[in-house]
Design brief:
It is a single chain. This protein is mainly beta. Helix content is 10%, strand content 52%. Strands 1, 2, 3, 4, 5, 6, 7 and 8 form an eight-stranded mixed beta sheet that branches. An eight-stranded antiparallel barrel has the order 9-10-11-12-13-14-15-17.
């Protein structure tokens, strides 16, 4: 009897553990680059899946190794969540091609997305999402402008005076406007009004706070409390490894992250600081993603899925 009771207890634990594991499903497709060009061998295939609040869930990074478009991918994603998928490629000099954001509804069955067209993407800083009826629109704030990406087109809008909220107008096409009030927005494209839009705000993001760098690749940082990495919502970033001040820009789409070229002050650094600064500057062009643990206040920058920089808030 005791043996039977013990066996039932163990089976109950097993069933409880199985029940707690999230159900997964397969999502597959192909990425096709619109431009007719040969991609270099070190181009990275990128697939990112976020929640419907634009919080990273999972992703894929893979070197293309000389292969050319189209590129196939398969990902395992949670079956019970509403998700958004972005797919694309990243080449040298921060050249980026991305598909339109693709919504994925909860379901138990595998999903084949078919061919996703990836177009060259301009700098958009911290690119978030707007939901306009049944359509997703990508939106990015820059220091002096706002960009929206829709139907494989990127439009640059300039701020204009408004009686209320924030108004942005395309100077080349005044019939394209975006009027924002809090998290709601009214978007007109060539004079045609889309369904009322809602700005999708992530549960948390990398722009919240100052990050102290604890390790670069496998090397602990010297004096981490004197280091800092700051992301601004308009796509600017600043950093210091304890000596010079570095200034540049970044772009973020879902879990994808990349950096542009850096400018730096030219102070002479104490022993070790200069080498640390050089290592930091050398790894930034390799970054293609990030993992954020908001509860622990930890940030990890990755290259092809491998951690290359760790930081703490």
């Amino acid at each position: 009897m005791l043996r039977l009771a013990f066996a039932l207890l163990l089976s109950g634990f097993a069933l409880g553990a199985a029940a707690s594991e999230p159900q997964m499903r397969s999502v597959s497709g192909q990425i096709t680059v619109l431009e007719r060009m040969a991609l270099p061998d070190d181009t990275v295939l990128i697939v990112d899946v976020t929640s419907d609040t634009d919080t990273p869930v999972t992703g894929l990074r893979r070197l293309t190794e000389g292969a050319q478009s189209p590129f196939e991918f398969v990902l395992e994603v949670p079956a019970d969540q509403a998700l958004v998928l972005r797919a694309g490629l990243r080449g040298l000099d921060d050249m980026v091609w991305l598909s339109e954001p693709f919504p994925i509804s909860p379901a138990d069955t595998a999903m084949e997305l078919g061919s996703l067209r990836a177009a060259r993407v301009a700098q958009m800083g911290f690119a978030g999402l707007m939901s306009c009826g049944n359509q997703l629109v990508e939106i990015g704030f820059l220091p002096e402008a706002l960009r929206i990406r829709l139907n494989e087109q990127t439009m640059t809008l300039q701020p204009q005076p408004a009686a209320s909220g924030a108004l942005y107008v395309d100077p080349d096409n005044p019939a394209t406007t975006l009027h924002m009030k809090a998290d709601a927005a009214l978007l007109r494209i060539d004079g045609s009004e889309l369904s009322e839009c809602t700005l999708i705000l992530p549960d948390y993001d990398i722009t919240q706070g100052v990050w102290n760098i604890s390790a670069i690749e496998d090397t602990p940082a010297l004096f981490p409390s004197r280091t800092e990495l700051v992301f601004y919502p308009d796509g600017r970033m600043t950093a210091s490894m304890g000596c010079n001040r570095l200034i540049g820009n970044y772009r973020r789409h879902g879990g994808f992250l990349s950096f542009g070229r850096l400018a730096s002050t030219r102070m002479a650094c104490p022993d070790g600081m200069g080498e640390q600064e050089q290592r930091f500057s050398a790894i930034l062009p390799k970054v293609d993603g990030y993992v954020l643990d908001p509860e622990a206040g930890r940030l990890m920058l990755t290259a092809q899925g491998q951690p290359i920089l760790r930081a703490r808030r």
